[in-house]
Amino acid sequence: MVDRILNKVKRKANDFLFNSSLYAKYLLKNTQNTILMYHGCDSNGDTTYNSRHTSKDSFEKHINYLNKHAYIISLNDFFEKRFISGKPNFAITFDDGYLNNLTNALPILTKLKTKATFFITGLNNTKSDILWADFLNIASVSRKENIKICGEVFEKRKGIFYSLNSNESLYKIIKEINTSYEYKLQMMEAFGADAKFKLNPDLFEKWQLMSDKDILTCSQSEFIEIGAHGYFHNNIGTLTNSESRKELKDVKEYLENLTQKKINSIGYPDGSYNRTTLDIAEELGYKYQLAAEGFHFEEDFTDNRIRDRKGVYSWDSPANQLIINF
Ligand SMILES: [Zn+2]
User: Which pLDDT tens digit goes with each residue over 42-68?
Assistant: First the structure.
């Protein structure tokens, strides 16, 4: 109870004092160097479907804040420990390759002369034009009836589909149990007519991904480095060694052919990897590997091949979205 009140007061203070240099100094005093993980950058930060898209206004506020009170450095510099002393150092990353990264985030990064890394999948080379999580989030809103995937029936409760067999959410089953690309295709097919949301222009910025041409445009910007985010966006830590090798190899080849640049970083989809994944990725030429929201293994803390990232989500005010990560 006391914690909750204190937390509320702290959040209010963050909102109120966000622009105060003194407060920023106090907040950042003991902050570790941090890699931030964004996903989308949309027009309004709407959380109807998920909270993965930060509004472009919030994003610009964050970048201005960090440029003023901290240092933003490139991901390469972060891994190579080329830190600037005196203030905490941050690196900016975006996952998933949303079209809004090009249309909304890139102009802000260019205007504020700030570097970022975009982690992108190989989905443009597959049968999918949408990430499975976006499909599930958006299609679940309109769907009322049960759905059936590979004989398993799922029922909607409070907006989320749960298996009638195991009572696990469909989201969790795709992330942790049936992690193959084929299962994702079957899930999307099971929704049938609910896939019509893809025709609604109002929703485009919530799920549309960059085309090959868009990715190439980003890669040619002096402010953007392209990294890999798995080929199918499968949870790599749950795959067999040969499957994960293929995921990591195929996306690297696809992005290198497209950009004509070396792809040396991998942001693990859903932060999923295991200790063998790190060796496979290193063998394939990934110098920089990135977890999300915490390491999975004790050894990771002293392993220079991997760094953790903290996510920025749109469920809170612009000040708290950022400050919560300090
Ligand atoms: Zn992702």
Answer: 999 989 888 999 999 999 999 999 999
Looking at the structure, do residues 100 and 7 belong to the same domain, yes or no? Answer: yes
Give me ligand 1 centre to Cα 214, in Å. Answer: 18
Q: Which residues pair with 280 in a beta bridge?
A: none
pLDDT tens per residue, range 203-226: 999 999 999 999 999 999 999 999
User: Would strands 224-228 and 288-290 be described as parallel, antiparallel, or unpaired?
Assistant: unpaired
Q: Please give the Cα distance from 23 to 14 (Å, whole number).
A: 9
Instruction: Note whether 261 and 222 are same-domain residues.
Output: yes
Q: Are residues 240 and 153 in the same domain?
A: no
CA of 147 to the centre of ligand 1 (A): 24
CA of 268 to the centre of ligand 1 (A): 8
CA of 192 to the centre of ligand 1 (A): 24
Contact 97, 73 (CB under 8 A): no
Residue type, 194: D
Specify the pTM: 0.95
CA 240 to ligand 1 centroid distance, Å: 20
Q: Domain residues for 88?
A: 2-127+208-323
